[in-house]
């Protein structure tokens, strides 16, 4: 239990600090946007690049992607059926399903795994993150476009193409692939490596990634607040925090026999709360905004308990 507290308290303690700051005049919405931009475009890219620059591509296993997204997609389509039973409109069903399957692997997951396992735990996590938005957001955007009245085929293809391009420009994906590419290049050229001066700059930026990301997450929750449809959002939170990690762990443990560390990281990422992109996508399509907002807020608050239980069951000790 002491080891669990050593992970949970620092992570959610900083989220709480961010929430308190967000409730005051110290960090207004425009200031939060500035902090978010600096965190995503400077701190996180440095952390991701440094982590992946030590990883060889042939050391990566696709099994973790099959486990995670296999379980995620199964749950996604089950949630679509449940949403239909609950009487939600077609486009709202996609928001409902996304709220139960899209993980906050960047804002909370990266700092969380960094505190628990160090850089070695980031490798499997970044593999999942690199595919997560591409798979889940594209699928949800496709369904929301179908549900949008008057959306023709040309309009649909243009929207999906724009979404794919936006994801390639996202500050998370490029540094992951750049780090992998640099790792392969340095392995082929003897004596080549990241210059010490540059690496120290990257290290300094990377050190700020975790605390700033957590403070940003807390401040964002303070600005978002609760909205309508909290009962439906509570249903998605239960599936997100309980069903998805259980499905991922079962598949990784019994069907694919993942490496223990990789299985633990995949399970913990599945147990993360719903990511902020859920309500950003809902706002973009102007559907299910209240549902998405509450799903993020409720799952983040409840994850303090569920992540503690997950860590305890997995027998995790901080690395």
UniProtKB/TrEMBL annotation:
**Which chain regions cross the lipid bilayer?**
6-22, 34-52, 64-83, 95-117, 123-148, 202-226, 238-256, 262-282, 294-316
> Is Lyase among the key words of this record?
no
Keyword NAD (UniProt): no
Q: InterPro entries annotated for this entry?
A: Mem_transp_PIN-like (IPR004776), Na+/solute_symporter_sf (IPR038770)
Predominant location: membrane
GO terms for biological process? transmembrane transport
Q: How does it sit in the membrane?
A: Multi-pass membrane protein
Name the source's superkingdom: Bacteria
Which Pfam families does this UniProt record tie to the protein?
A: Mem_trans
One GO CC term on file: plasma membrane
Intracellular or extracellular location(s): Cell membrane
Q: Which UniProt keywords apply?
A: Cell membrane, Membrane, Transmembrane, Transmembrane helix, Transport
User: What family is it from?
Assistant: Belongs to the auxin efflux carrier (TC 2.A.69) family.
Q: What is this protein called?
A: AEC family transporter
Q: What is the originating organism of this protein?
A: Enhydrobacter aerosaccus
């Amino acid at each position: 239990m002491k080891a669990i507290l050593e992970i949970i308290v620092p992570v959610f303690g900083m989220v709480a600090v961010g929430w308190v700051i967000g409730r005051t005049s110290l960090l207004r919405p425009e200031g939060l946007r500035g902090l978010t931009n600096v965190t995503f475009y400077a701190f996180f890219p440095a952390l991701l690049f440094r982590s992946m620059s030590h990883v060889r591509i042939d050391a990566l296993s696709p099994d973790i992607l099959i486990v995670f997204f296999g379980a995620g997609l199964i749950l996604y389509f089950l949630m679509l059926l449940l949403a239909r039973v609950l009487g939600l409109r077609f486009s709202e069903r996609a928001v409902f399903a996304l709220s139960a399957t899209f993980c906050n692997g960047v804002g909370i997951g990266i700092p969380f795994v960094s505190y628990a396992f160090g850089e070695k735990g980031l490798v499997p996590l970044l593999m999942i993150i690199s595919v997560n938005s591409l798979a889940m957001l594209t699928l949800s955007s496709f369904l929301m476009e179908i549900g949008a009245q008057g959306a023709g085929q040309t309009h649909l293809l243009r929207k999906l193409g724009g979404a794919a391009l936006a994801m390639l420009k996202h500050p998370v994906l490029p540094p992951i692939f750049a780090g992998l590419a640099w790792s392969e290049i340095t392995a082929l050229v003897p004596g080549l490596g990241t210059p010490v001066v540059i690496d120290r700059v990257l290290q300094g930026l990377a050190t700020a990634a975790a605390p700033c990301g957590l403070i940003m997450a807390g401040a964002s929750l303070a600005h978002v607040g609760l909205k309508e449809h909290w009962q439906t959002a509570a249903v998605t939170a239960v599936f997100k925090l309980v069903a998805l990690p259980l499905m991922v762990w079962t598949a990784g443990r019994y069907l694919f026999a993942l490496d223990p560390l990789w299985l633990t990281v995949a399970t913990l990422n599945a147990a993360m709360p719903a990511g902020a992109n859920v309500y950003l996508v809902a706002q973009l399509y102007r559907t299910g905004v209240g549902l998405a907002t509450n799903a993020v807020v409720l799952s983040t608050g409840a994850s303090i308990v569920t992540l503690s239980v997950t860590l305890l069951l997995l027998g995790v000790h901080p690395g």
